[in-house]
Design a protein that fits this description.
The chain is an alpha/beta fold. The protein is about 30% helix and about 30% strand. It contains nine helices and 13 strands. The termini are far apart. A six-stranded antiparallel beta sheet has the order 8-13-10-11-12-9.
């Protein structure tokens, strides 16, 4: 059985990835996306990089029309040559067509590029389609660019480039109930260290609880006024009441509001939280 394989990491499944995946899906051949479970960058950086969890990434890829998703173990292939990596793909998937992005690299140290891939495909009489960069407002869209937007607090720009937005999905923890004492009750979730790093501060957010969406505000960080050892998401929902402990909640980051800061008193903190809420409510009403 001849196949069309789409090569890439596909983290975020953004519009650039979509162009690669659609080309394979529309080829008339059995389409397979060949990717890594987590981005190779994760093995070389000291901070998280993941934009989309594996299960959600798989669903998004299949929604585009890809029939099968195969995840490679990066540790098992990171030290093989580009030529051996290509041979593995050829023997494993029997491709008649290979599709990749213009900046695709492969093999040990990422030494293989699209020029080498073209030569290797010609030797095996495999058609190669290299998809040119996809740009928004003259900016090439890439997972690295989206990560930079998130890290810089340009959250509303980043989520426009992701088909599913950007969210964390973690269990609700028991907190110290300090927010409740200030009339801003919160539910708390860890910010997973493998997810893409975001700027610490206050966000406009949306939580999905039992299939229903609730808007609110979330502080992500180490809470300098009452310090923590690891980053925490503390979310106050505007129109929800009830216990959420031990539930797994999906929390979408929608917009960055302000940087995290240390306050000199509890009253100063309460005033800042009140002002944050008023700003977010204005945004939700469509006011400037």
């Amino acid at each position: 059985m001849k196949t069309a394989i789409a090569l890439g990491t596909f983290d975020g499944v953004h519009i650039g990835h979509k162009a690669v995946l659609q080309t394979a899906a529309n080829s008339g051949l059995t389409s397979i996306a060949v990717a890594f479970r987590i981005p190779p960058k994760a093995y070389f950086q000291n901070e998280g990089v993941i934009l989309t969890r594996e299960d959600r990434k798989t669903a998004l890829i299949k929604d585009i029309g890809i029939k099968q998703v195969e995840y490679l173990d990066f540790n098992k292939v990171k030290d093989i040559s580009p030529e051996d990596f290509f041979d593995y793909l050829y023997k494993t998937f029997s491709p008649a067509l290979i599709v990749c992005g213009y900046n695709y690299t492969f093999g040990k140290g990422g030494k293989g590029n699209t020029e080498l891939l073209k030569k290797l495909c010609e030797q095996k009489e495999v058609e190669l389609k290299v998809i040119d960069k996809v740009s928004v407002d003259e900016q090439p869209v890439s997972s690295s660019y989206i990560r930079k937007l998130l890290k810089d607090g340009k959250t509303s720009d980043a989520v426009k480039l992701l088909p599913d937005g950007f969210f964390i999905e973690e269990i609700v923890l028991h907190g110290d109930k300090r927010g409740r004492e200030m009339s801003f009750p919160t539910f708390n979730q860890y910010y997973s260290k493998d997810m893409a790093a975001v700027k610490y501060g206050v966000y406009m957010t949306k939580a999905i609880i039992d299939g229903k969406a609730y808007f609110g505000m979330t502080n992500i960080g180490i809470r300098p006024t009452f310090p923590l050892d690891a980053p925490l998401c503390e979310t106050n929902l505007f129109d929800f009441s009830g216990e959420l402990y031990s539930k797994t909640i999906r929390l979408y980051l929608l917009r960055f509001i302000r940087e995290e800061k240390k306050f000199s008193s509890l009253e100063e903190l309460k005033t800042a939280i009140y002002n944050d809420k008023q700003q977010i409510l204005r945004l939700l009403r469509g006011e400037k």
